[in-house]
Amino acid sequence: MSEDRPLEELAALLEDETARRILTEIYREPASASALSGRCGASKPTVYRRLEDMRRCDLLVERTRLDTDRGHHHTVYATNLERIVVEIGDDGIDFQVDRREPMADRFTRLIGEM
Questions:
Q1: Is residue 105 part of a domain?
Q2: Which site from 3, 67, 78, 112 is most exposed, i.e. has the minimal number of CB atoms within 10 Å?
Q3: Which residues contact 111 (CB under 8 A, 6 or more apart)?
Q4: What does the angle CA 103 – CA 94 – CA 29 come to, to the nearest 5 degrees?
C-alpha cells in the first residue's frame, strides 16, 4: 500500500505551513506561483520550492493557461490530492495517497469499460 515516496518525505512536506496553505489554495482553484505568493504571504522563491517538493511527491499537476488579453501563457498549478490514509498494524505504519483522476483519464476509462 505504500507509495513511491517515503512517508517521511511526505510528512515533512505536510508539516510545512506554507506547503499546506498552497495545497489548500490549489485545491480550491488552479493558481499561478505569483498568485500563490500573494495569497499565502510567501515569497515567490519559497512558493516555487514548495511547488517543486509537491511535484516530486506527485501532489500537483501543472497546466498552461493562455492569457488572451496579452497573448502570453503562464503555468498554473492544481492539486491532484484527494486524501492521505495512514494505517498502523502488526507490520508497522503504512500509508496510501489517493489522487484525483484527471478528467481525460476518467473519460478514457469510462469509454474502455463500455
A1: no
A2: 112
A3: none
A4: 30
93 lies in some domain: no
Q: Tell me the CATH number at 67.
A: 1.10.10.10
If you search the block for the grid coordinates 482553484, which residue do you land on?
29
Burial 90-101 (b: 16+ CB within 10 A, else e): eeeeebebeeee
- What is the number of structural domains in the chain? 1
Structural domain boundaries enclosing 28: 7-80
This prediction has a pTM of 0.75
Q: How many whole angstroms separate alpha carbon 34 and alpha carbon 77?
A: 11
User: How far, in Å, CA of 60 to CA of 100, rounded?
Assistant: 10
- What is the per-residue pLDDT across 24-53, written as a single tens digit (0 to 9) for each? 999 999 999 999 999 999 999 999 999 999
